Amino acid sequence: MRYALLGDIHSSVEDLKDVLNDIQKQAPDAEMIGTGDLFECIISKKRAPFERFGRLKDVMLFSDELIDMLTFPSVRGNQEERIAQITESDEPLLLRIRTMEERIGIERTADVIHGHQWEWGGEPWLPVFPETGRNLIFYGHSHESGLTIDSQVEEVGFGVPYDVTKGRTFVNVGAVVGDRNWVLYDADAGTVVFMKVMD
């Protein structure tokens, strides 16, 4: 089975539209899974611990058009966590945000997580990857497409299949917002292809 992984949308309707159209063209059979930060929280991390709001429209960017396009399951990102933390409302969308999982499994081969849960640092800016769990992890958060196998950062190109069966592998799917990037994972072939919407 094939999977289209996309995330870091940050409420960008036009970028998401382009990526969804590209997925439909390139891999119409693929099951879509989100890597989090679907929405953009407009309240800063510094303000969040001290403020509470009664309406989602006061804390995040969204529209009916955006919600209609978000038909796929997704893990929660740091944006969703902040939105849930500072909003006190009975809106159905807030319930949806609050019930997003931290991790989604793909068959028995891989896990999807946003990645903000890890410690980040260094140059290039990378997370300290966990030593336990499945050998294939898809994540986002930094908005940079990337591939790390057995602690080695690999150079990646778009449209090229990479074998993800030969070591502990972490795949950053990149960002929809701004970059219009996504990843196609073929679980049967054990490959990932980094994808980018071209103008």
Care to describe what's here?
It holds the Pfam family Metallophos_2. Residues 1-181 form the Calcineurin-like phosphoesterase domain. InterPro entries: Calcineurin-like_PHP_lpxH (IPR024654), Metallo-depent_PP-like (IPR029052). The chain is α+β, with helices and mostly antiparallel strands and 199 residues long. The protein is 18% helix and 28% strand. The chain starts with a strand and ends with a strand. 34% of the residues are buried.
SSE order and pairing:
Blueprint: E1 2-6, H1 13-26, E2 31-34, E3 40-41, E4 60-61, H2 64-69, H3 78-86, H4 92-98, E5 103-106, E6 110-113, E7 120-121, E8 126-127, E9 136-139, E10 146-149, E11 152-154, E12 161-163, E13 169-172, E14 181-186, E15 191-196
Parallel strand pairs: 1-2, 6-9, 9-13
Antiparallel strand pairs: 1-14, 3-4, 5-6, 7-8, 10-11, 10-13, 12-15, 14-15
Entry keywords:
Metallo-depent_PP-like; five-stranded mixed beta sheet; Calcineurin-like_PHP_lpxH; Purple Acid Phosphatase, chain A, domain 2; 15 strands; 4 helices; 199 residues; alpha+beta; six-stranded mixed beta sheet
